[in-house]
Amino acid sequence: MKLDYSAVPRMPDGRTALETIEAVAATAQAVRVPMGPRSAGGDGQMMWHVWGEGSGKPTLLLFHGGAGSWIHWIRNVQPLSEHFTVYAADMPGLGDSDPPDDVLGIWSITDCVDHAVRALLPNDRAFSIAGFSFGGMVSGHLSTRMPERIRRIALVGAAGLKATRAPMAKLHRLLPTMAPQVLADEARRNLELLMLHDPKNVDGVAIHMQIMNSTRARTRGRDIGKTGALSAVLPQVRTPCTGIWGEFDSTTYPHIQERIDLFTALQPDFRMHVIPGAGHWVAYEAADAFNATLVELLR
Asked: What pLDDT is stored for residue 299 in this prediction?
């Protein structure tokens, strides 16, 4: 069923959200690579958007959050490509990538990403990862498969931690059958609850992204996160990790110190970088500060 985005507000420059997204996508090379055989038959395909292929700059992989796509990084990919060759993934079962065999299995998803990365990059190329929320869980698991290749992981509001969370109202499911205004309003509500701290920062691109990605998501990132998947694998992670969190991340505030203690108990050199005034989707809400912080961390 075709989605109706007519109630999504335009951006301040007058463009629609889709026009804004497509303008950024047009600056990238879209690449599909196999992510391994599936029980349904044949290789699944994983989608990547690439900025700066062949530039010789250090390689950076971007893993988005649950029910997301590369668009979680829409305010980051171009500035970061000034410093890195950027590969922004659509994670298995999300965005334009095929689903894994098990949409509730973190290792099934990791197997797909492992296979895809090996198909995407030469075997001798090392890289860093920034993993947002669900992408942080996958980053940790992937590092146990190829520790010799991953230089550093920047965990960005990472999910899957066995740590205290403040109560939050339940998110509403977005349905293609909803009237356009209801769909836009429900997407805005979910963004305000989970993703962005300041309601004024919920704009057309954020709403369009939330509708498009949520209604086509098959992988169940939030359910996987509730199992504490990242906490379970962290003792096996040898790759140096660092953290970037929004000050008011809805999945963490006001329990940030508990996360810091959890990480430093395993990696004493771990440092948490908190960006003031931002929520869970810190890379969007405080893009300039986030970009500068990530570049400095990976320099």
From this structure: 86
